[in-house]
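batch_manifest entry 22 of 60
target: Phospholipase D Active site motif-containing protein
source organism: Aliiroseovarius sediminilitoris
requested by: lab member K.T.
priority: normal
notes from requester: please return tokens only, no post-processing; we will run our own comparison against the previous entry in this batch. if the run fails, retry once and flag.
--- input ---
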Amino acid sequence: MLLLETGAFRRELADALSSAEQEVIVLSAFVKLDALKWLIETSRTSNLKIVSRWQPADLVAGASDLECFYLCEEADIPFGISQNLHGKVYIVDSKIFIGSANLTSKGMSLSHYENDEFGTGFEYGQTEKIKVRDYLASVNWLDVKTVELMADFLRNFVGNTDAQSNEWPQEISEKLRSQPLGVWFHDLPMCNPNQLLAQTAVATAIEHDLDCFRSKKGATEDELLKGFKSSQICFWLEVQLQEYGELSFGKVTSLFHNQLLDDPMPYRKSIKEGVANLFDWASRCNSKFEVIRPQYSQVIRAV
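--- output ---
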């Protein structure tokens, strides 16, 4: 692992981008339009995701450009924000680059004026992939309507000394709830509630679910249900119900299958087993879900 200065970091990243075959993920507090254009033009793959910080003051000061969203929108590239983001991470297929360089001309040494940056690149494994996946699931993925509201706010922001420079107004903040781009098979529970409470499932399944629910061994049913309600799979289910209303077991299975990010895809039988566990957990959350069986198949709806 070598320590790379500004120019060398950009060259190593460019080499990786030019041969990218699977995906490129960028997490950068600041993103400028010219640097984003360079990244898109350099990348061999069009499967990109961009995440920036986008506090109001960042955009007013010119640290990031609002136009970056529209460039991504035209190229069908998801653009999200995470308002606590400070890191700079560039993922190209199985390689990850980390350091101090933002996706800006100065950070990437794309102009005569450059910052003194340092970073490195290395192959990353399953642990890092899970961390990145979980982080992406927490990102606020933007749409045109939300960005238009932001633009309107920013036009009135300059010179307003009463405004909180790091906060969006309530009208915008309410729209900034994270929306998952997709799901992973790993998100589904591997145990039903009885198996997890009695610890009768295999150890790996128990460990998996405790991790997903952010719970510890010996947790009570209330503690496990609280963990389930805050899990990524529960949020995904809520989003589907908001969009489609009442859903059958088969429809939930189909939606999950169609939104899977895993490659290779798991067997459909395994997905059905996970969805069955999901329905079992949801049926115990009476304040959120109602699970009924009108005929042969279960149906779930939001309460």
